[in-house]
Design a protein that fits this description.
Blueprint (H helix, E strand, L loop, with lengths): L5 H17 L4 H16 L4 H6 L11 H13 L3 H9 L4 H5 L6 H11 L4 H9 L11 H12 L10 E2 H16 L4 E6 L1 H4 L4 E2 L2 E7 L2 H8 L5 E6 L4 E6 L4 E6 L5 H9 L2 H12 L3 E3 L4 E3 L5 E2 L4 H7 L15 H6 L15 E2 L13 H10 L4 E7 L11 H17 L4 E9 L10 H5 L3 E5 L8 H13 L5 E2 L17 H11 L2 E5 L9 H9 L4 E4 L11 H10 L13 H4 L8
Parallel strand pairs: 4-7, 11-12, 12-13, 13-14, 14-15, 15-16, 16-17
Antiparallel strand pairs: 1-3, 2-4, 5-6, 6-7, 8-9, 9-10
Helix pairs in contact: 1-2, 1-5, 1-7, 8-9, 13-15, 20-21, 22-23
Bound molecules: 2'-deoxyguanosine-5'-triphosphate (DGT), calcium ion (2 copies) and zinc ion (ZN).
Length: 579
């Protein structure tokens, strides 16, 4: 699973470089880490996946030493060399290195000569005009450093965590709190409950027979590194991997109000308040105040909150302030959102023919076990690079191999497919004759991301117009929290897809979820058939469709709105080649 984004790996190596510099290492050693970090940040593929395949040294500037450190990070969550160096310096010293005009070397000078080991100590020294006594520092530096501190520079913004890891942590904490003798109800709220792309902090709402005891119990959990009491019956904590956790223990009679409020989103809550005001009601996290009677209604359940406001209960995934309140008022909410168990097929997966870990047969048997009626084997194509090219001859052999397995395994239709590269001019990288011999083709952009919006839009519209490209894969190329989408007009892409009957996937890789929720909803509304595909590179990640389904739900989609929730007999004729 791509748990470490390229950005996260690069940040760890940058930090290691800073630590070495703080430690006085020779500069070329420091630079080696920075160079590698840059290469990793810019790499078009998942460096984590590359490292797990034992191929990370193929990246420029990454040798055996770095490989070992990257693997340690992936396997254990930290790099031993960094741990050792971190222990040698006060933790606040690294904050200094992020200030303008203060690299590791100069920060070390301040530490050695004045004992400055934190942003607070630095401010004190600057305000006391003590810095000017040190060689290379003067009154001007003292002034700029105070300005920088006032602007909040140097403080590390907590990184947002991808949903799978946040949800894993959140559910673990929730379940351990539930097991506490003082606990009554414990629920996860916030962005994790809404199944958002990423999560800043975990919000947990509980009721308890002994609220103070439950709040204190949070700090005792194994996953928690440090905790503080945040008012009566509330706890704030931090997990070992830096994720903040907020716990609020409330009166059972107000549980619904608090759960609703802390599930959010902020945009949903703001819209909810405005709608309530028009009914003479004032909604807060503690209750609903009736302006006329002066009475405050407390709700044990969340359903009660929505009911008092004349609304149907709204699934947390829809609570983003995107029209869900109007829909809840007039019966316009989707009757039932799609679920993982609705999927009948998966149209994007890789095998050992390109960069996957399992064979066609292994993928097919695992899909069968998931209850699928059909899958498409879509290895990378002729120009993928990184040693994973599938030449035209190899693809012909693959078509036969798929047919052989398909004939042998009962109960599942195995399509011979390909994930072809959409070349900069919009054409696929196999010829039409070969594409016509396949059962299914996904077109994806894997190269030349920076050609600009007009060119990229033309390129993707051309791909939609191709007679053998059945679907577009991960249409914007974004990697959540680590790579911006490339510039492309989604409106034009959606229009072309609807016009040509090209499907568009929600790629379920947890760092992709591409199309995103907003775009998937727009595409569906424009008449595009949406797929939820795993893009799995092994049997263990077929289950990643969970994250794509989360995005589909956030896009308001039901079972009938997702093409691969259709049985094979209805899906088959929707392919361009079958029409
Ligand atoms: P994040 O950033 O991933 O933690 O996202 P959330 O949605 O969990 O946001 P968080 O933890 O800052 O706040 C939890 C909930 O509290 C949020 O979903 C709704 C509520 N809330 C936060 N700020 C506001 C606000 O300014 N107005 C209202 N009405 N509610 C808010
Ligand atoms: Ca939160
Ligand atoms: Ca929060
Ligand atoms: Zn791809």
């Amino acid at each position: 699973m791509p748990d470490y984004s390229n950005l996260a790996i690069a940040a760890a190596l940058d930090e290691l470089g800073d630590l070495y510099e703080l430690d006085g290492a020779v500069i070329h050693r420091v630079l080696a880490y920075r160079t590698a970090a840059r290469a990793i940040r810019d790499a078009p593929m998942s460096v984590g996946a590359l490292a797990r395949e034992g191929r990370v040294t193929e990246l420029p500037g990454v040798g055996r030493t770095l490989e070992e450190k990257i693997l340690a990070l992936l396997d254990t969550g930290s790099i031993p060399a960094a741990e050792k160096l971190r222990a040698r310096f006060p933790p606040g010293l690294m904050d200094l290195t992020r200030l303008p005009g203060l690299g590791p070397k100069r920060a070390r000078q301040l530490f050695d000569q004045l004992g400055i080991d934190s942003l607070d100590a630095l401010r004190e020294a600057a305000e006391g005009q003590q810095l000017r006594g040190i060689r290379g520092f003067g009154p001007k530096f003292e002034r700029t450093v105070i300005e920088a501190l006032d602007a909040g520079l140097g403080e590390q913004p907590a990184p947002r965590v991808l949903l799978p890891r946040a949800l894993g942590l959140g559910e673990q904490i929730r379940d351990e709190l539930r097991a506490h003798h003082a606990a009554d109800r414990v629920e996860l709220a916030g962005s994790a409950r809404r199944l958002a792309d990423s999560v800043k902090d975990l919000d947990i709402i509980a009721t308890a027979t002994d609220p103070a005891a439950l709040a204190a119990a949070l700090g005792e959990l194994d996953v928690i590194e440090s905790a503080s009491v945040a008012g009566p019956n509330a706890g704030r904590a931090r997990t070992h991997n830096g994720m903040p956790v907020d716990l609020r223990v409330v009166e059972p009679g107000q549980f619904g109000n608090l759960l609703q409020h802390f599930t959010g989103s902020a945009a949903h809550n703001v819209a909810l308040r405005e709608a309530a005001v028009r009914r003479g009601l004032h909604v807060s996290e503690y209750g609903i105040l009736d302006d006329a009677s002066g009475e405050t209604l407390h709700c044990e359940t969340e359903e009660g909150v929505y009911e008092r406001l004349g609304l149907a209960w709204i699934a947390p995934e829809l609570r983003e302030g995107r029209g869900e309140l109007a829909a809840a008022a007039n019966g316009g909410l989707p009757a039932r959102l799609i679920e993982v168990s609705d999927l009948r097929g998966d149209l994007h997966m890789h095998t050992t023919a390109s960069d996957g870990r399992n064979s066609i047969e292994q993928m097919a048997r695992a899909a069968l076990e998931r209850g699928y009626e059909y899958i498409a084997i879509t290895d990378h194509s002729a120009t993928h690079g990184f040693g994973n090219d599938v030449s035209p001859d190899e693809l012909r052999a693959q078509i036969e191999a798929v047919a052989e397995v398909n004939a042998r395994i009962e109960g599942i239709e195995i399509l011979a497919g390909s994930e072809v590269n959409i070349l900069p001019d919009g054409s696929p990288d196999y010829d039409d004759e070969l594409l016509a011999a396949l059962d299914w083709v996904i077109g994806s952009v894997h190269t030349s991301f920076g050609i600009g919006e007009a060119e990229m839009t033309k390129r993707m519209v051309a791909a939609c117009e191709h007679p053998y490209i059945d679907a577009i894969g991960h249409p914007t190329g974004r990697k959540i929290e680590s790579r911006a989408p490339y510039a492309v007009s989604i409106d034009a892409l959606v229009e072309a897809a609807a016009r040509t009957g090209t499907m568009i996937e929600i790629n379920s890789a947890p760092d992709r979820r591409d199309l995103n929720d907003v775009h998937a909803r727009a595409a569906h509304d424009a008449g595009v058939r949406i797929l939820v595909n795993s893009d799995s590179h092994g049997v263990s990640t077929l289950s990643n469709v969970r994250w794509g389904i989360a995005t589909a739900r956030r896009a308001w989609l039901g079972r009938d709105d997702v093409a691969n929730a259709l049985p094979w007999a209805r899906f088959a004729p929707l392919r361009k080649r079958a029409r």
